[in-house]
Design brief:
about 300 residues; alpha+beta; 5 strands; 11 helices; 5-stranded mixed β-sheet; about 45% helix; nucleic acid binding; Nucleotidyltransferase, domain 5
């Protein structure tokens, strides 16, 4: 039988570790496994069991146990399989929407002054010559971009800020102190009411940031690396940039661009961010079905 590749295995185990730790944070009374004799399920066998579940080749511990007879020396009971899968966090595949409503999603993004970094494409009739419709003009000193940080939750988008200069650990901590805490106050949330999500950028996981989280008794969500398909705020950035692209005239500079960003950010409709958060159970399912690969999200 063909096992999952190391990369696929790492992706799936990172995801399962993520949802397991979130589940433990929100359900502190969840029982922990007790000591006992060594398990028959080594890491590669557990990965194969995950593959059987995620690929749809088995849907119960009994079916997995039967399939494992060919790769395990000796018999494996369905109870052993069930325990092994529970330890990987597979139980949290069924995390409810109410659980995801507690998450505050955060991220940074770059917004260009004049469109995207790449080319723009337009429809052109056969034999049509170049015209103002087909050619986008440029502005003197019109290049450049801005970086922004923002967050969102079930109750709305939070406070956003323009990042001046290079984002480092000190600046990130000041954003947590100001924009994040102001957002929590605006939503009427405390640390016990929410789970904070951030990616694994070095400034997010720096010693200074870790000390800030510890001082504020806040434990960020464990997030798997290289998993943009899982983060719904990525789609929120896309929505924001589409709205900015609808302006007929380009902004006259970075300051005017930031004014537009603030306006569009504050006017994002409720259904936009709530639909994105509502998609989390499907995102989790999609990533598992793709065995850690790409999904439509």
């Amino acid at each position: 039988m063909k096992l999952l590749s190391a990369a696929k295995t790492d992706h799936i185990l990172s995801l399962l570790d993520l949802v397991s730790k979130i589940h433990s944070k929100l359900c502190p009374g969840l029982s922990k496994p007790s000591g006992g004799h060594p398990t028959k399920l080594i890491l590669t066998t557990i990965c194969h069991a995950i593959h059987l579940i995620s690929s749809g080749k088995a849907d119960t511990a009994v079916n997995v146990a039967k399939s494992l007879q060919d790769v395990v020396d000796g018999s494996v009971s369905c109870e052993t399989v069930h325990t092994g899968l529970r330890k990987t966090g597979l139980k949290a595949m069924h995390w409810t929407l109410e659980d995801w409503k507690r998450v505050i999603w955060s991220d940074e993004t770059k917004i260009n002054h004049l469109g995207s970094d790449g080319r723009k494409w337009v429809w052109k009739k056969s034999g049509e010559t170049l015209s103002d419709r087909l050619v986008e003009g440029t502005l003197k000193f019109g290049e450049g971009n801005l970086m922004m940080w923002g967050c969102m939750g079930w109750d709305g988008v939070g406070y956003a800020c323009k990042v001046d200069g290079k984002m480092n650990a000190n600046l990130y901590v000041s954003i947590l102190e100001d924009e994040l805490q102001n957002s929590m106050e605006y939503w009427g949330k405390t640390v016990k009411d929410m789970v904070f999500q951030q990616d694994n950028d070095p400034k997010h996981t720096s010693k200074k940031a870790k000390e800030w989280f510890q001082d504020h008794k806040m434990e960020p969500m464990v997030w798997p690396t290289q998993f943009p398909d899982l983060n719904p705020i990525e789609r929120l950035w896309s929505h924001l940039k589409r709205r900015l692209a609808e302006y007929e005239e380009s902004s006259r500079g970075i300051n005017e661009l930031w004014e537009r960003v603030q306006k569009e950010w504050e006017e994002i409709d409720t259904f936009v961010y709530q639909n994105l958060i509502s998609s989390m159970p499907r995102r989790i399912e999609g990533v598992l079905r793709a065995k850690g690969g790409y999904t439509k999200y």
